[in-house]
Design a protein that fits this description.
2 domains, binds copper (II) ion, alpha+beta, 10 strands, Helix Hairpins, 4 helices, 34% helix, Immunoglobulin-like
């Protein structure tokens, strides 16, 4: 991966992440606009001859530089709120998956079909295959069918963890004694990687998340033969 790519988002694999990236770009355009404006004003202040040195007030310019930032904030706040509510929406999920944080691994439960439970530990470096990622691959992957609305329930048994997969736009805190809900809709097959995003102890960096997105038939087969 090139250095420049590391500075950008991963490719979106869900509609929500597409929305989040669009919003990021939108906010970034406004920030660039403001930065250039401020730089220009700083430069022109340094260059001018201070002809209005004894000016005490200017009602019109103060009105302008109060109202314009207020309007800009509205242009950021409204789409931000739209996505916030979109993130919280639960759209009649067909599958429910429970992710439970532990120090320092994740365990998963699929209770819609049979009672499927498994732990998901990071693969140690010596067991890695050539095509796997160091510190990112797990021994058991989370299998999720794509184009199927999935509910994610997240909790923890010890301290606060955070279940995060950037390419899906999902980040949910795993708090002990509480179940948080999110939803997943993956729009293509593939492997999607994530990590715990709450400093949760000495092995915080070593409890990654791997999602294997498969088609529904494959998923049903996996459930059947588990
Ligand atoms: Cu953690």
């Amino acid at each position: 991966m090139s250095t420049w790519l590391k500075l950008s988002f991963q490719d979106a694999a869900s509609p929500i992440m597409e929305q989040l990236i669009m919003f990021h770009d939108h906010a970034m355009m406004i920030i660039i606009m403001i930065t250039m404006m401020v730089l220009y004003m700083m430069l022109s202040m340094m260059m001018n001859k201070f002809t209005n040195r004894f000016l005490l007030e200017g009602q019109l310019i103060e009105l302008i530089w109060t109202i314009i930032p207020a309007i800009m904030l509205i242009f950021i706040a409204l789409p931000s709120l739209k996505i916030l509510y979109l993130l919280e929406e639960v759209n009649n999920p067909l599958i429910t998956i429970k992710a439970i944080g532990h120090q320092w691994y994740w365990s998963y439960e699929y209770s819609d079909f049979k009672k499927i439970e498994f732990d998901s530990y990071m693969k140690p470096m010596l067991e890695l295959e050539l095509n796997e990622f160091r510190l990112l691959d797990t021994d058991n992957r989370v299998i999720i069918p794509f184009n199927i609305q999935t509910r994610l329930l997240v909790s923890s048994t010890d301290v606060i963890h955070s279940w995060t997969v950037p390419s899906l736009g999902v980040k949910v805190d795993a708090s002990p004694g509480r179940i948080n809900q999110s939803n997943i809709l993956i729009n293509r097959p593939g492997l999607f990687f994530g990590q715990c995003s709450e400093i949760c102890g000495s092995y915080h960096s070593f409890m990654p998340i791997v999602i294997e997105s498969v088609n529904l038939n494959f998923f049903m087969n996996w459930i059947k033969n588990y």
